[in-house]
Each structure stands twice: as structure tokens, then as C-alpha cells.
Design a protein that fits this description.
This is D-arabinose 1-dehydrogenase-like Zn-dependent alcohol dehydrogenase. This protein is an alpha/beta fold. It has nine helices and 18 strands. 26% of the residues lie in helices and 28% in strands. Strands 3, 5, 6, 9, 10, 17 and 18 form a seven-stranded mixed β-sheet that branches. A six-stranded parallel β-sheet has the order 13-12-11-14-15-16, with helices on both faces. A three-stranded antiparallel β-sheet has the order 2-1-4, with helices on one face. The protein binds NADP nicotinamide-adenine-dinucleotide phosphate.
């Protein structure tokens, strides 16, 4: 079968390592199911792999693509939870399994016509979501869902600040927070993206780093270095800053006086549990919530799709269909 594969590592030019090649059809191992892939959405995780973060050259080639929607051999339309982990090893929480990995590193990924995945990772796709929309859910959307409602415990009527207008996680957070009755404020670098995010439902948009009219209850930050100090300045006393990414750098300066005197909670968040993916899909189904898709690419153009993600110009999710 045809597959988009990481063939080599390059820290400076990760997309150069993406090749479309013929690989053997996967076989389902014990506890696994085969899924015919209908759509895959891209995440930075694959770009980190192509840069050699978390993988060594000996692990290559590996089929890329961790967010899959497709159909099982018995005709079930599914979304695949992208975390490969054992809840028991994590004391009942798969996110705490010390050996957890993701599809496309722990196992071969989904940028192909067929993928073998753990059967427990299969979740029913609501009929109301297209395969392209459903493929956006397992990583970026699930991460945004958990940041907002589990780690950030945001409630209707509260104000949330989302740092970064156009990101996959950021656009998901804006859409979900709006659907849940929050007041949503967003920062963004470009006027075009700020306008687009307003159309997604943001109540107010600001330039990156701008002073806000008042402090917010919860901050959603996946940017890191470029927004961190602004996040801490923008949250109200007793509020929460939730962090799930560091696109602009992971090493930051923190004013500890502000942190403890203002009783600010800083929460790390990574991915989400399978049951949270079920809840997220139910929310999308019930309320008509849909991901914003930046572009859909054919498998043969997987490198072009990764270029789009790496460029920083995408607004919403980049999707590939085999
Ligand atoms: N922990 C997890 O489970 C998890 C899951 C998914 C993603 N992530 C991480 O979260 C991060 C975002 O992922 P994504 O898929 O949303 O990426 P993305 O679609 O490429 O978005 C990147 C975001 O970062 C903002 N940004 C980048 N550089 C910036 C700078 N110098 N100043 C201000 N804003 C900047 C962009 O803002 P503009 O729109 O204004 O340009 C955009 O919102 C990545 O680091 C990824 O690895 C983590």
C-alpha cells in the first residue's frame, strides 16, 4: 500500500524527510483492529518526529499520521484515539502510563490506506461528522477540550483567553469555548487571522501581547515563550493558566511573586483520555460544533500538507485523504 513515511531526520528541514512509498499492508496483532483510513489530520507531533525529537534514526522508516478516522473490517465508522497507552500501567489513567506513546511513534501511523490500531482506541464516529471533520478530533481538538473543561474547569459565563489565533489547538479552543457559553478572547499575530477567529465566535481579538481590558478566568496557552509572561499577567487572581504546547520555545521566565501572591494555578495538559474523546464527539454531534479545516490534501501531496503546517500560515486543521 502507499504510505507517507518519515525516512530521515532533519532538525532544520523536517519536511524533507517525508516520502510517499510502498510499504507492506499491516496485519492486526493481538488486541488490534485494522482500519481502512478515510482521513488523517496533521499535528506538530509528526514534525517533531521528523526533527528527531523523541525518536532516533534507527526507528525509521515510520508511517506518519496520528489522527485517523476510517472504517473497520466489519463496517464500523470510527475515530481512533491517538494515544497508545495502558490505563492499568497509569494507575487507571492512560495519560499517566509511563510507557505511553502515540500512533506514528509507538506504532505505525495512519497516513496510508490501512492502519492497525489497539481495538480499545476505536471510538464510534457520529454520523453527523464527515471523516475529514472526525479526523481533526483525536489530538488538537481533544487537547483543547481537556485544557478547557478538565484542567481549566472553565464554566459558562467565565472569560477565557486563547493565545494564538490560527493554531489547530487554538481554533478548537475558541470553537469549543464559544459552544459552551464562555466569553472568548483571543490574541493573534496577524490581522487576517484575528478576523477569521472572530468569525469562529471570538468575542474580542487582540494583538499578541496586548493589554486586555480586564483579567480573565482561564488562559489557554500552546505558544510558550512568546506569550507566557502575557498569560501570567492576563489571568485574574485565583485564575488558571493551562499549558499544552511550546511552539515558540519551552524555556520561559516566571514572576514567582505574581504566581503565589495572586494564587494563580498553572496546569500542564497533554492530549486527553479516551472517555474525553467520547464526550467531545458527543458535544460536536449534539451542538453541531465543527472543526475549521484549513486545507485537504491527497496522500501523494503529504509533503505539501506538512509544509502548510510547518509554515505557520494554516488556519485550523490540515487534513490528508488517502
Ligand atoms: N500537549 C499536547 O497534548 C498537545 C497536543 C496538540 C498540540 N500540542 C502542541 O501545541 C502547540 C500548538 O499546536 P497546534 O497544532 O495548534 O499548532 P499550529 O496549528 O501550528 O499553531 C501554532 C500556534 O502558535 C502561535 N504562534 C506560533 N509562534 C508564535 C509567536 N512567535 N508568537 C505568538 N504566537 C505564535 C500561532 O499563532 P497565530 O495564529 O497568531 O500565528 C498559532 O496559534 C504545538 O507546540 C504542539 O506541539 C500539544
Amino acid at each position: 500500500m502507499r504510505a507517507a513515511v518519515a525516512t530521515r531526520i532533519s532538525a532544520d528541514d523536517p519536511v524533507a524527510g517525508v516520502e510517499i512509498v510502498d510499504v507492506p499492508e499491516p496485519e492486526a496483532g493481538p488486541g488490534q483492529a485494522l482500519v481502512t483510513v478515510e482521513a488523517v489530520s496533521l499535528n506538530h507531533h509528526d514534525l517533531w518526529t521528523l526533527r528527531g525529537v523523541g525518536v532516533s534514526e534507527e526507528r525509521l522508516p515510520v508511517v506518519l499520521g496520528s489522527d485517523v478516522a476510517g472504517v473497520t473490517a466489519d463496517g464500523r465508522e470510527v475515530v481512533v484515539h491517538s494515544l497508545v497507552a495502558d490505563p492499568e500501567r497509569g494507575g487507571g489513567d492512560e495519560l499517566l502510563d509511563p510507557r505511553r506513546g502515540m500512533l506514528a511513534d509507538a506504532l505505525q501511523g495512519g497516513l496510508a490506506t490501512t492502519v492497525a490500531v489497539p481495538a480499545r482506541n476505536l471510538v464510534d464516529k457520529p454520523a453527523s461528522l464527515s471523516f475529514e471533520e472526525a479526523a481533526c478530533m483525536p489530538t488538537a481538538w481533544l487537547t483543547a477540550y481537556r485544557m478547557l473543561f478538565v484542567r481549566g474547569a472553565a464554566r459558562p459565563g467565565q472569560t477565557v483567553l486563547v493565545q494564538g489565533a490560527g493554531g489547530g489547538v487554538a481554533t478548537a479552543a475558541v470553537t469549543l469555548a464559544t459552544a459552551a457559553g464562555l466569553r472568548v478572547w483571543v490574541t493573534g499575530r496577524s490581522p487576517e487571522k484575528r478576523e477569521k477567529v472572530r468569525a469562529l465566535g471570538a468575542d474580542a481579538v487582540f494583538e499578541t501581547g496586548a493589554r486586555l481590558p480586564e483579567r480573565v478566568d482561564v488562559v489557554i496557552d500552546t505558544v510558550g515563550h512568546a506569550t507566557w509572561e502575557h498569560s501570567l499577567r492576563s489571568v485574574r487572581p485565583g485564575g488558571t493558566v493551562v499549558v499544552a504546547g511550546a511552539t515558540a520555545g519551552a524555556v520561559v521566565k516566571t514572576d514567582l511573586f505574581r504566581l503565589f501572591l495572586q494564587q494563580i494555578t498553572v496546569c500542564g495538559s497533554a492530549m486527553g483520555r479516551r472517555e474525553e474523546l467520547v464526550d467531545l464527539l458527543a458535544l460536536c454531534d449534539a451542538r453541531g460544533v465543527r472543526p475549521h479545516i484549513d486545507s485537504v490534501h491527497a496522500l501523494e501531496d503529504a509533503a505539501g500538507a506538512f509544509e502548510r503546517l510547518a509554515s505557520g500560515h494554516a488556519f485550523g486543521k490540515v487534513v490528508v485523504t488517502p
